[in-house]
Amino acid sequence: MDASLERGAMIDPLVCLRGVSKVYERGRQRVEVLQRVDLDIPAGDFLALMGPSGSGKSTLLNMIAGLDAPTEGTLQVAGQRIERMSEAALARWRAANVGFVFQFYNLLPALSAQKNVELPLLLTRLSAARRRRHAAIALDLVGLADRASHKPSELSGGQQQRVAIARAIVSDPTLLVCDEPTGDLDRHSAEEVLLLLQRLNRDHGKTMIMVTHDPKAAEFAKRTLHLDKGVLIETAGAGAGAGR
Q1: CATH number, position 152
Q2: Residue 43 and residue 12 in contact, taking contact as beta carbons nearer than 8 Å
Q3: How confident is the model over 151-173, as pLDDT tens digits?
Q4: CA 70 to CA 19: how far, in whole Å?
Q5: Is 122 helix (H, G, I), strand (E, B) or coil?
Q6: How far is CA 173 from the centre of its chain?
Q7: Where are the alpha helices (DSSP H) in the chain?
Q8: Among 90, 102, 201, 212, which residue carries the largest CB count within 10 Å?
Q9: What's the pLDDT at 54?
Q10: Peptide bond into 109 cis (omega under 30)
Q11: Model pTM?
């Protein structure tokens, strides 16, 4: 599962933003969401992005993941200048390099956990047998090997999010981006998910960026960055939850 980690370890930093700005034009209105952000994220980091609603944290996450493009500046991830890529090239790059974890899981209700985890592998040349094997390994890593045949409706919210994490890591991506991954969970389930993310970072070397509004969730990251009105305003060290 960790072949890409050796490749990523050779690139320092894994993510490099220089002078990144994002402006949306809405009629005559000009909305500056990010203002000349400089940011380095080394391989193996676990970064929490915090800030009030509208601060630009989700926009920043989307740009690093190749879902949005900067208006100005350069954005390099895993050695690639992704702001220069075409939409087709970006789609291929995302499939190979980025795993996504969302607040509301985004699982297909008609499919089992196993089949949901296999979905990213349908874009590869892996045989059906190898897809099943990779999905089984990913489900085992998140502690749900015994739930492979269950559909989302037969799983708790925390279990569904763990299936979503298994889906995010099944293709061994360079980077995991998590947008409010505990926002729809109770405190106990949220802590289970955060401990899992922390273990994937610590024991498997996965580089993660997590947007969260919850200071308790941010404590599980190695460091926290705060955005306010599109400006990076503060960097904090590892929280109390780091290294649990």
Answers
A1: 3.40.50.300
A2: yes
A3: 999 999 999 999 999 999 999 99
A4: 9
A5: helix
A6: 10
A7: 3-9, 57-64, 87-97, 113-118, 128-141, 157-169, 187-204, 215-218
A8: 212
A9: 83
A10: no
A11: 0.86
Domain for residue 118, yes or no?
A: yes
The tally of domains found in the chain comes to 1
Taking the C-alpha atoms of residue 15 and residue 58, their distance in angstroms, rounded to an integer, is 16
Give the 3-state secondary structure of residue 184: coil
* 187 located within any domain: yes
* Structural domain containing residue 194: 44-66+87-235
Tokens 């050796």 belong to residue: 6
Does residue 142 register a pLDDT over 80? yes
Question: Can you tell me the distance from the alpha carbon of 47 to that of 236, in angstroms, rounded to the nearest whole number?
Answer: 10
> If phi over 0 gives left and psi between -120 and 50 gives alpha, with beta otherwise, what is residue 40?
beta
In 3-state terms, what secondary structure has residue 186?
coil
The CA radius of gyration of the chain, in Å to the nearest whole number, is 18
Q: What is the mean pLDDT of residues 185-212?
A: 94
Between β-strands 29-41 and 15-26, what pairing exists: parallel, antiparallel or unpaired?
antiparallel
The C-alpha angle 61, 89, 79, rounded to 5 degrees, equals 60
